[in-house]
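W.,

You were right to be curious about this one. When I first looked at the sequence I had no strong expectations either way, so I just let the prediction run and decided to look at it fresh. Below is the sequence, 493 residues in total, followed by the output.
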Amino acid sequence: MKLMNCLPLLFLLVTSTLSAQDMHNQKHQDMLITNAMVVVGVGTPAEGPYDIHIKNGLIKTLKSSSKDSDIRKEITEQIDAKGGYVLPGFINMHAHSMYKRSGIDMSQPYQHYLWLASGITTIRDLGSDLEQTLKDKKQSAAHEIIAPRVFVYPGIWGNHTEKDLKDKMSDLLKKDIDGFKFGMMDKQTFHAASKIANKNNMPVANHVGVEDMNAWDNIKAGTTTIEHWYGVPDAALHGVQNFPSDMNYSNELHRFRYAGRLWRESDPEKLTAVLKGMVEANVAWNPTLDIYEASRDLQRAVTAPWFQDYLHPGLEKFFKPDADSHGSFFWGWTTEDETYWKNNYQIWFKVLRQFADLGGTITTGEDGGYIYQLFGFGYLRELHLQQEAGFHPLEVIKHATVNSAKALGQGEKLGQIRVGYVADMVIVNGNPLADFSVLLPRNIKPITGDETTGGIVWTIKDGIPYHVPTMLKAVRDMVKESRKTNQIDYLVD
């Protein structure tokens, strides 16, 4: 079923006093969401139906729905949720803003629209074109572009001399950044960089490689979030991982092949001590389960149903197995590799659950634009995978909202449907607590065959409503236009 054919149904189920086009991308002093089942974000069950009054971009009141209420008579700008679910806006804790891929330009609305259409109202950018990302941050805050709110964490990679490190970080601190991302550093560089970050009250997201450091260094250094899972099982090994003699870490096929065997080598007792250390040091974990899923099921990854309409040629070309492209290592992938990775995931799931049970903070990110994960779609898949790990859907939503806002240092203003908080929210035509698949675009045919529900209809950021079907149509048009001159013929016919 194509999206445009679904629009009458969408308008029937989630309607507004004004037309969708009149409401889309319009700043209203007062706006009312009526008949909404509300998921606050803190892990409690849905409540409602409620009417939500938004004033000057903030949530002013949250009251039981009443067709005779005075406020319904006073406010013209209304969106009737018709019993659909309203969630806090999602926070993407591992995003990369990509303006070009494989030499092919990607207009930035493409990525921004996909994020918003997936309910993402805030991103933490962990290393992109810095000047352009800072521009996006400024323009998004001023509502000059249609885009999520942006927190900028420029990346510092590799080893540095003390002087070069100080100079580099000093230059970055003069810009409007919100934190740092460290990656692939040795112990000496990491601790020196962490000292500078701590002195300047800058949070740190750390992507550990296979160096002489692990999660214990993150615990000691005051790291804010550990990205993916690197460094955690490493800290629970007896010695080093059992690498073969011909292992070459610079070869990504080798790197990801043996990453799939790491969790099984970690000692459970030592691992528990690591997790407790992370909890005590308030180190949050941003697992990005979605980004490695191709490693356990490559066929599923390359046949995603949304590729046909939404995969940009720049990404399609980048995804093609190529030893020179990061994350495109599948030129020698085997069913044996997949089997190890399936086992890897089962242990990873268990450890994540243990971390949460010990009081640890889990956040939500996607790392989209790599390894067959499309922006926004990867994030929604992350919700599925966290549920597969054993988390209740309410916990999954909490990770994506409250926990992520807390890790950003924004827990007092973002991540909840609560009076006084920023009006970031997602209006869904269905119940995502029963089925996260209802968050997918309506032109992706529901597996259940139920075509009466499904799809995010509105994403609201700073009180400004964005009509998701309108943005998705624009994305499809961008993709069609780019394919006229960039026909890759890898994942899409």
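Here's what jumped out at me. Confidence is low (pLDDT under 50) at residues 1-16. And, maybe more interesting for your project: The chain has 18 helices and 19 strands.

Coffee later to discuss?

I.
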